[in-house]
Specification:
Mean pLDDT: 83
Number of strands: 11
Helix content: 25-40%
Bound molecules: calcium ion
Order of helices and strands: EHEHEHEHEHEEEEHHHEE
CATH superfamily of the largest domain: Response regulator
Strand content: 15-25%
Low-confidence stretches: 8-27
CATH class of the largest domain: Alpha Beta
Radius of gyration: 20 Å
Structural class: alpha/beta
Number of domains: 2
CATH architecture of the largest domain: 3-Layer(aba) Sandwich
Strand order of the largest sheet: 2-1-3-4-5
Length: 254
Amino acid sequence: MRAVRCTRIPAGTKMAAVDSTAAPATGGFRLLLVEDEPEFSAILAALFTDEGYHVDVAGDGQRGLHLGLTRRYDVIVLDRGLPAIEGLDLMRQWRRHGVTTPVLVLSARGTAADRVAGLDAGAEAYLAKPFDVDELLARLRALRRRHLDVARMLPVGGYRLDLDTREVSAAPDHTGAVAEPVQLSERECGLLATLAGRPGQVFSRADLLTGVFTEAASPIVVDTYVHYLRRKLGQGIVDTVRGRGYRLGRDPRR
Ligand code: CA
């Protein structure tokens, strides 16, 4: 369960504090490698580990899909020719489920048409094999930086949530007028950021309790904070899904 931290942190330490799962004890970033060639996969995994990444390896598309959907990564390195699910299909499935982690495709298929297909399917970068190791690592660093900057500003329907200041702001209206941002408490921000991190996903109260309100004893605290969010941002900000839990409102400005 992803726990989002909503506190201002000094520049430079920004990357380690995006969420608690993104920064394991080693201080490294989490990288998912999906590659079916065992020897090549082992070489890459060693390379990434040396570079300071915490690496998970999936040897086929099915395992890659599962890991990408259930764990948080800072970057994903994806092969195209995979057993079970082809690489680009796999990426489309992640994207459909709201996984926004940047993906670098590493493939023997390197024509212009192949690259275009990869980028169109949702990859942020495409590198053809054989590749230069330094270029691969540099591209991963660039993706990671971009992802982290974006990750501090979460889209919430027509609003944006700033995880540093905990302010929710709306886009300017048709006259260009900008409404005063709404200030959230740390727990309100954590709850909203968790829901907004996976729009469409229904979270049970138990999920939200462990993910956001770790020290709280009763699931009622979740209901209370949903109430606070609605009071500040409108009824539509969170949808109740009867018998299942809560999800980000489908029409947050209702
Ligand atoms: Ca392959």
